[in-house]
Amino acid sequence: MTGAARAAAVDFDQLVEAHRKDLHAHCYRMLGSLHDADDALQDTLIRAWRALPKFRGDSSPRTWLYRIATNVCLDAIARRPKRMLPIDYGPPTPAGLEPTERPLTEVPWIQPYPDKALGVADGASSPEARYERRESLELAFIAALQHLPPGQRSALVLRDVLGFSAKEASESLGTTVASVNGALRRARTALKKRLPDQSQQNTLRSLGDRRLRVTAGRFADAFERGEIDTILAMLAEDATFAMPPYPEWRRGRDAMTRSWLMPVGPRSLRYLPTQANGQLAFGVYAIEPEIGSYLPIALDVVTLRGDLIADVTAFRTPMIFSRFELPDRLTASTTP
Known about the structure:
This protein is of the alpha+beta class. It folds into two domains: 3-79 and 131-194, Butyryl-CoA Dehydrogenase, subunit A, domain 3, CATH 1.20.140.160; 200-334, Nuclear Transport Factor 2, Chain: A (Roll), CATH 3.10.450. The chain has eleven helices and seven strands. Strands 1, 2, 3, 4, 5, 6 and 7 form a seven-stranded mixed beta sheet that branches. The longest helix has 29 residues, at 3-31. The termini are far apart.
C-alpha cells in the first residue's frame, strides 16, 4: 500500500468511527432488525470506501454517509417483507388458549436494540429534528416506521430524526424537494395514528430516576418471588404481552393471568436490568436444576404508562444477550 493509500485509509477510518454508532442506529430504524442493521452498516462502509475517490465535498461527510446508508437500507427493504411485532400479525389470543408450541421463525419479526451497549446518546441529532435519538428507537416508533412505504419511511427518518433539510433529503433519495415534502406529510399523518400519546422518554422523565428504580425493582422482585398478585397489580387494565417469535399475544390483565408471562413458582426466574430501545428492559433467566444455573430465555422490553406496565414484549432470542452486555448464565448461588 502506498503512502497516499495508507493516508486515505486512516482518514476513512476516522470518518467512519465518528459516525459508526449513529449509522448503525439509522439502519436499525429503517430495517427494524439488529442483524439486518449489522449487514447494512457493513455494506454501507464497503460502498463508501469504493466511492471515496469520487467524494468531492459537495455535501458534508455525514450527509454523504447517510445517503449511502439510506440507499443500502432501501435495497434491503425491497428484498424482503416488512418486519412486525405479534400485535401486527393477528388478533389477540383469547384468555385460556395456550400458545402454540412452534415459533414462527419464518416471520420477519422486529428485534430489540441495545442502545446502551452501542452508546446511543440522548438529545436530537440536530436542531431541526423532531424526535430525539432514544425516542426514535422506541419499540412503538420502530414498529410504526415499518408500516410506512419505503419512500415515506426514508423521508421521515431523514427529515424528522436526522434533521436533514428537504434539499439534502431529496438529494439522498434521488428525487425532488416537492416529492420529499409530500412523502413526509403522508408519513407524519400515518405515524401519528400509530404512536402513543406520550413517548417512553417523556414517561421516564416524568417518573424520575428514583421512581423508575423502584418500579424496576418491584417488577423484577415480583417475578423472581413468583408473586402473581403483585405482578397483576402492576399491569395496566389494557396491558399487552407478546413473545416473538411466537405469534400469539394477550391484551388485558385477565387474559395475561394464564399467559406465559407469569412465573411458574418462586425462584424459577432471575431478572437482570438492562436497556433496550431507550426503554426499561430485563434479561430473563430460567433455572436449570440439573446444572444448578439460570440460563437466558428472553429479553423483556417494558413499556410504562406512569408507573404501570402497559406492555411487555419478551423476545425469545437469548443468543442476543451478549449484545446487551448480559451474561450467558447465572449461578443458583446468586439467587436473592
